Amino acid sequence: MRIAVFGTGGAGGYFGAQLALAGEDVVFIARGDHLHAIKSAGLRLETPSGETVIRAEATDKPAEIGHVEAVLVGVKAWQVTDAAGAIRPLIGPETVVVPLQNGVEAAGELAAALGSATLGGMCGTLSFVAGPGHIRSVGGQNFIKFGELDNKLTGRVRRLRECFAHAKVSVEVPPTSSKRCGISS
To answer: What is the CA angle 177-159-118, rounded to 5?
Structure first.
């Protein structure tokens, strides 16, 4: 799967690195010294179990990438609305956009700008940018959760879940609303 990580900070960098290590075609969108370091030396991922360097495409110009199958939005919550405009050139007919922010507004802000490409999502990670091109994860339970805004289980959600599972990332797609409410169909 071709996946763009828009905002290669602690969360985006960690999850994008895991996907790239599992063989997914990941492109990192970053800026400044961080971007320069990723382009010249790769993205260095440091975890309690060791260090690795991910060699992958990196840019600060999303329009040059073309359509991707998934976009992980790893910017700060206050940057989501601005990021949505820059993400637009990445969106094709089958693209899913997953917010990584732990807040209730990100999915709505993305959906207002990008429509049905948007999934609900959130993540948990104890990761941060330790220096240009260097993501440090200090351990703990790293996880990602996502699903359709109407809570239906679709093929695109299943495909993305499989990518994360293959990357050995704890991934959850919440059950349908009828099951959560105790209503049987």
So the answer is: 60
